[in-house]
């Protein structure tokens, strides 16, 4: 599982600036999609060959006793408690604030690995900046500038140092691993009950046994599925109960771990910022997706039309996914949900043979040539599959850097149609072949090579000259 870094600190210390820097490389992947919020709080980061997840906890007001700030503080504390490493940001320019001490006290109690980062320190002397923050008793302050990227790499490397690199899970299961996610109160537990309640649950740990077992295997219509548990689901009598409430960190990790994500929305409420953040994260992760708009029973007929179009507009960037309008409470629409889960899983795991991919590519370029850019026309030579879940198509050729975004989209949708993909993103990558002429006369590398090449040229002249 990827380690999760959680950024905490009082408002305005530079958390979102740092967050953006840490997740920036992935941003390009999902940039400019209509409806996708730019102001995100969850994302993917990578340092060297180490991937990790980042959570920006937003403005943290630890003293709020009730209301929305209190609720935010509660969720922040939970994210912090579940973090693999906490990065606590303070502001070098403002110096040590009273609120920093309150937050530090709370964080210390969590017993998680904790890194104190003194931010906005560009152009300042490290030792001078660090000095006053020793008082927090959190060890050596790490002096950084999120805006300028100074010290950021070292900070992340240090924070991730003690986590083993994820070994790649080679063993491929042949059934979907499903994560059911959504913000608090949309009906996830009710849906889980309607799924598991009537189905044969194959392995289920009874109350009181290990809290770490997060996979629940079940069978439905003679097919196997694994549910990734985000809320510590336990069986009590006839029903299943969630022992924990909504958990950001577990949600993110479940999405990473799943093949297919079921995003649950509440039809009675507008698509919220939190819905959009979770949706954006799912998109970025590349997982297959089915959207379940829940509590549909509670809506009048004309209200339903309004809600449908509103959701479609706001979540336009998820248009590759199937949307289902369900009632978890009444168990209606759940069968259809499973059809889409199966379809999305099959699409996500599809095998695309090189000859077929290349043939589709050739047909596509014959129908529409890639437009010339400058003196060269991009030449697309062949395509092969580079991965699954999401399926990745790698196209090789020359002058590929001048391919336009719209031409890339054309290719993507051609592959998507040819393989009838549903419910999964498809990624297309372009690999520039090397210049074929450069390979003909390899450049001499050593003095001995140079002499050998010289001899060969002379011999060649004698023979043919
Ligand atoms: N000089 C300097 N300014 C910075 C740096 N990082 C962030 N800032 C500035 O600090 C201000 C707050 O930055 P944000 O990233 O929005 O801070 P935040 O902690 O996310 O704030 P909240 O969302 O209110 O919690 C902005 O004006 C940033 O431009 C830095 O490394 N150096
Ligand atoms: N009308 C209606 N109410 C529903 C439906 N599904 C769930 N609810 C109600 O919505 C409320 C929240 O449902 P939960 O299943 O606890 O929601 P959750 O997403 O698991 O909530 P957290 O555990 O807080 O993340 C409960 O009162 C449910 O009875 C539905 O299909 N229709």
TrEMBL record:
Q: Where is this region: Disordered?
A: 432-465
Any keyword GTP-binding? yes
Q: Which SMART domains match?
A: AAA
Keyword set, alphabetical order: GTP-binding, Nucleotide-binding, Repeat, Ribosome biogenesis
Protein residues bound to GTP 2: 182-189, 229-233, 294-297
Q: Name one GO molecular function term.
A: ribosome binding
Q: How does it assemble?
A: Associates with the 50S ribosomal subunit.
> Signal peptide location in the record?
none
Homology family: Belongs to the TRAFAC class TrmE-Era-EngA-EngB-Septin-like GTPase superfamily. EngA (Der) GTPase family.
What Gene Ontology biological process does one annotation of this record name?
ribosome biogenesis
Q: Report the gene name.
A: engA
State what protein this is by name: GTPase Der
Check the record and name the PANTHER family matching this protein.
GTPASE DER
| Stated role | GTPase that plays an essential role in the late steps of ribosome biogenesis.
The residues the record assigns to binding GTP 1 are 9-16, 56-60, 119-122
Per its UniProt entry, which superkingdom is the organism in?
Bacteria
Q: What range(s) does the EngA-type G domain occupy?
A: 3-167, 176-349
Q: Where is the composition biased (Basic residues)?
A: 453-465
């Amino acid at each position: 599982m990827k380690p999760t870094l959680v950024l905490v600190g009082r408002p305005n210390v530079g958390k979102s600036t740092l967050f953006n820097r840490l997740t920036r490389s992935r941003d390009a992947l999902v940039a400019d999609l209509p409806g996708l919020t730019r102001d995100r709080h969850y994302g993917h980061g990578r340092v060297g060959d180490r991937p990790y997840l980042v959570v920006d906890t937003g403005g943290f007001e630890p003293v709020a006793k009730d209301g929305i700030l209190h609720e935010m503080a509660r969720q922040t504390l939970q994210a912090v408690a579940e973090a693999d490493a906490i990065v606590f940001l303070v502001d070098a320019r403002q110096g040590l604030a009273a609120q920093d001490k309150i937050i530090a006290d709370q964080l210390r109690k969590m017993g998680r690995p904790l890194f104190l980062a003194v931010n906005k320190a560009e152009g300042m002397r490290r030792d001078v900046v660090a000095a006053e923050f020793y008082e927090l008793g959190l060890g050596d302050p790490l002096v950084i500038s999120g805006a300028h990227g100074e010290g950021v790499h070292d900070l992340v490397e240090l924070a991730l140092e003690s986590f083993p690199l994820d070994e790649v899970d080679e063993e491929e299961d042949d059934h979907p691993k499903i994560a059911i996610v959504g913000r608090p109160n949309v009906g996830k537990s009710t849906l889980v009950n309607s799924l598991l309640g009537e189905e044969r649950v194959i392995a289920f740990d009874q109350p009181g046994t290990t809290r770490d077992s997060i996979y629940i295997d079940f069978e439905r219509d003679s097919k196997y599925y694994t549910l990734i548990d985000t809320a510590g689901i336990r069986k009590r009598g006839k029903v299943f109960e969630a022992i924990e409430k909504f958990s950001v960190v577990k949600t993110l990790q479940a999405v990473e771990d799943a093949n297919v994500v079921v995003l649950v929305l509440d039809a009675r409420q507008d698509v919220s910022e939190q819905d959009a953040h979770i949706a954006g994260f799912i998109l970025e992760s590349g997982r297959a997706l089915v959207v379940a708009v829940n509590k549909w029973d509670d809506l009048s007929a004309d209200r339903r039309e309004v809600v449908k179009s509103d959701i479609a507009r706001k979540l336009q960037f998820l248009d590759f996914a199937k949307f289902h309008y369900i009632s978890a409470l009444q168990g209606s629409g759940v069968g259809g949900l499973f059809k889409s889960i199966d379809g999305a899983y099959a699409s996500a795991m599809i095998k695309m043979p090189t000859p077929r991919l290349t043939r589709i590519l050739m047909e596509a370029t014959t129908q529409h040539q890639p437009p010339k850019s400058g003196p060269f026309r991009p030449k697309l030579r062949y395509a092969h599959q580079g991965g699954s879940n999401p399926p990745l198509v790698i196209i090789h050729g020359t002058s590929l850097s001048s391919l336009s975004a719209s031409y890339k989209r054309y290719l993507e949708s051609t592959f998507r149609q040819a393989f009838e993909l549903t419910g999964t993103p498809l990624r297309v990558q372009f690999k520039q072949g090397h210049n074929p002429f450069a390979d003909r006369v390899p450049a001499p590398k050593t003095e001995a090579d140079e002499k050998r090449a010289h001899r060969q040229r002379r011999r060649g002249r004698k023979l043919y000259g």
